[in-house]
Amino acid sequence: MASIDLPRPSNSKKSTDANENETPSLPWEEFEEFAEKAKTLPDTISNEDKLLLYGLYKQATVGPVTTGRPGIFNLKDRYKWDAWKAVEGKSKEEAMADYITKVKQLLEEASASTS
Questions:
Q1: SS3 for 46?
Q2: Longest Cα pair distance anywhere in the chain, in angstroms?
Q3: Which domain holds residue 70?
Q4: Which of 15, 17, 96, 99 is deepest in the core (most CB within 10 A)?
Q5: How far apart are CA 99 and CA 115, in angstroms?
Q6: What spatial distance separates the first Cα and last Cα of the chain, rounded to whole Å?
Q7: How far apart are CA 2 and CA 7, in angstroms?
Q8: Model confidence over 19-29: pLDDT tens digits?
Q9: Considering its fold, how many domains does the chain have in total?
Q10: pLDDT tens figures, 35-44
Q11: Residues 80-106 as b or e (16 or more Cβ within 10 Å = b)
Q12: Which CATH number do you get for residue 40?
């Protein structure tokens, strides 16, 4: 199976409503921090973990799947779409929390394997 590229976080800030203008959105800031840390993960992490991160990232930033499933001849995009669809029931906040937890786990595993 081909290697899966992780999505790159955009530089745009999360839109806010009137209630959020008073305090910064800490979960979003922490999510962005861990999205940056995900870029430092070793290439040796499994495609399964990369796909999980991809799905959680898309769910956290976009929400539910917005496109049709790619065709059988476009396997890379099909795997990514399936990973996103698999976490479709999660709220954006749940997806962010799960993404952060998974990146922490993968960073700890990478650190332990280099020790």
A1: coil
A2: 48
A3: 25-114
A4: 99
A5: 24
A6: 29
A7: 15
A8: 444 444 568 99
A9: 1
A10: 999 999 999 9
A11: bbebbeebeebebeebbbbbbebbeeb
A12: 1.20.80.10
